[in-house]
Amino acid sequence: MASSGSTRLEISDWFVECALLERPIGETVIAFADRLQDLGFSVQRINCSTFQSHQIMGAVDSTWEQDTGHCETIFVPKSVLVRPDNIERPVGTMARGTSVYERYCLEDPRERSRFPVLEELFAKGYTDYILLKQTYGRHLTWLDFTPDAEGVYGSFATKRSGGFSETEIEGLRSFWRPFALFLKTTTEEMLSAKLLEAYVGNLPAQNILAGMTERGDGNRIKCALWYSDLRGSTRLSASLPSDKYLELLNNYFDCTAGSVIEHGGEVLKLIGDGVMSIFPVDGDNETQACSLALSAAVTSLSKAADLHRDQFDVTAEFYFGIGLHLGEVILGNVGTENRLDMTVTGHSANQVTRIESLTKLLGLSVLASPQFHGAHPKELTSVGKYPVPDFGGMTEIFSLLEK
């Protein structure tokens, strides 16, 4: 075997370089596997996963197998991590215990029978499996995970008869901390981007990460605008306990903002109980943008109806109006030197809120402007002309056709 102290040091330094140069995880894992092969290590599978207590990105999981030559990286939500099929795995057991190293000799039926995934690996020809953990030391308090569960987990598997040699195991353990440091550095940056996206929206997050960070930076976007507002929010907030009101709000946002995201829209602002969203126009295809916005409106009403049908508590019911418009907005940085906000503004943004406000007056759930109807007349019908602020004069308003 060709391993040496200097070669191992070179690999450790290489991991530091990969972290500093922000190399992608998949590319780095494949290159690491190549280096292990050059050292004579019989490793045919590498899995690495960073675990953090974050609602959106509970884990970043990457798996390389020699048979495919590819490394697949996926984001795993926290809700998936706690499913029984994930908890009852070697890594799930390690996350709930104090061990930082485990070895499973898959050629031993008693060893591989401890977890279904080990049986699956043996069926694919793997004979030995080691699992390592590097904690972040953040003292997590979540379910039955140990306080030091947040961290990096990695496994290595071989198909060689008899499994890993002691020299290989010692070598893999010596590489583990530099490898874990690279993974932590890379996924922390990915987590920061995901957090930014969760709090400001996908498009604003992309703009900020691309360098649009100066006060006054911004651009104009032609789009279909979508604005919804919860009805009776003042009464609801005053009459419901705080936890019940927040639960209701989240259900409302699941129906509205969730539908916008499902149909490819951008949720730019959650303004109290209002949802400001856009569907950018691709080229000159205004019809497509309006079609997606209208479909999102229909989906949101359907979701709310389903939710109400399945609930027995009438105090948990909620209703909302949606305004639809077609125009141009400015998405840009405004605020003070020390407190900036990537927000949407402009005449069209004001107009769509005016359209939505008419839903209360007319007792209708979805209303659209003449500009929106002009690009997408299907499924819409005129409900008359009304004086709408910011439009000038009497304006024809359109609503969803009754089905």
Describe it.
- The protein has 403 residues and is α+β, with helices and mostly antiparallel strands.
- It folds into 2 domains: 5-199, GAF domain (Beta-Lactamase, 2-Layer Sandwich), CATH 3.30.450.40; 201-400, 2-Layer Sandwich (Alpha-Beta Plaits), CATH 3.30.70.
- Helix content is 43%, strand content 27%.
- It contains 14 helices and 14 strands.
- It has helices at residues 5-20, 25-38, 78-81, 84-87, 90-95, 109-112, 116-123, 166-200, 202-209, 233-239, 242-262, 286-310, 347-362, 370-375, and strands spanning 45-51, 59-65, 71-76, 101-105, 128-135, 151-158, 218-230, 266-271, 274-280, 320-335, 340-345, 366-368, 380-387, 394-400.
- Strands 7, 8, 9, 10, 11, 12, 13 and 14 form an 8-stranded mixed beta sheet that branches. A 6-stranded antiparallel beta sheet has the order 3-2-1-6-5-4.
- It starts with a helix and ends with a strand.
- The relative contact order is 0.09.
- The model is unreliable at 1-6 (pLDDT under 50).
List the helices and strands and how they pair.
Layout (H helix, E strand, L loop, with lengths): L4 H16 L4 H14 L6 E7 L7 E7 L5 E6 L1 H4 L2 H4 L2 H6 L5 E5 L3 H4 L3 H8 L4 E8 L15 E8 L7 H35 L1 H8 L8 E13 L2 H7 L2 H21 L3 E6 L2 E7 L5 H25 L9 E16 L4 E6 L1 H16 L3 E3 L1 H6 L4 E8 L6 E7 L3
Parallel strand pairs: 10-12
Antiparallel strand pairs: 1-2, 1-6, 2-3, 4-5, 5-6, 7-9, 7-10, 8-9, 10-11, 12-14, 13-14
Helix pairs in contact: 1-8, 8-9, 11-12
